[in-house]
Amino acid sequence: MKKTFLLLCLFLTVSVSFSFSQTGIITGVITDSLTGHPVVNLTVFIPSTTVGTTTNQKGEYLLEKLNPGDYILMFRHLLYPSTSRFVTIEPGKKIMLDLVIAENSRMIKEVVVVGKLPDRRMATFLFNKYFLGDENGTYCKLENPAVLSFYSDGNTLKATAKEPLKITNRHLGYNITFYLDYFQCIDNRNSEFNYDDISNFGYSGYALFEDLTAAVPIRAIGWKFNRNSEFKGSLRHFLACLYRNELNNNHYFMRRAYHGLNEIQLVEKQSNAMTKIHMAEMDSLSSWNHLTGKSYVLFYDPNERYEFSRIEFSDGTEPGLKFLSADALILVFRDFRKSDDLSDDFISTLKIPKEGITFDKDGNFWVHNGELKWINLDNTMQIKRLLPFDYMTKINETKN
Question: For residue 255, what pLDDT is reported?
């Protein structure tokens, strides 16, 4: 019998590459295209990391001690359109990246959102529950809730923000600036919103992390413990366990994902009738397309585990490195409760670029070309539990 898991997709497409040798620098000046004046207080950052800064009175910015690799650099300001640039950091090199931008008011007209205004108390409750992962704001709190705008479109509650969200995460010890593109909860039963009846939800945006300062040393110890705990199930933890051949010991299991009947038939090279029989035995889960704001279904066989072949997983070209390449879209299950029920596992999709990746024993990785996509499908992976991609820990500190 087919069983559908309706889960959150927290979109975490990884397009950075980590390296730990000689570092590089990015610097530049941001100016207004019309006036030629410097743009002050524009945020320059690498999404989902602790790497970021703001431009000074001369429009200048400086990012130092960047590990060699490929990065997406974001430029955000309230009065200017969001801009990004792809950069490659080389050891010991400085990149000069100037930018000339135009104000939003000279480029686009104001967007008017048409929709029914929901009860703000209920909408805020749902936003805190599903986006922050803390409905009461006890450990993860939105400090500027007034910047949120809510509206409902049929059976969908939507939220946008006119300014960056300022979030204090006392569970992991971070201040987070989150540039929200959208958030939405979907009730697929076509009924009125209910606190406990949301069947699908997702959001898209970019986060910049900053370490909180602990008032007492014991709080910093607690943050480190929580960070190491949340690190389990992350992409780097998965790669580190793969490197050490410890996936099973850390309760990681893989299965191949299919988008539908045609893909199953193509991969398995079976007749349409045989493929339909196999598909009837499969389970399914919901993923989220952050670009369209819509969910889609992935199918998998719960009884067939996926294992990397010797061609897909091998020694790298340099000592201490491994190489990984696979054509399949892979579902990574982490059985943190050590049960036979797959529905309570942490689940992520892994898509490796065609030319593969190289990685080391600590899960640091290098993307040769393209993007490595790691998307969390677990409905507990919300802001409260979200770590920056550049979080560093000793892998042996996280062993079960």
Answer: 93
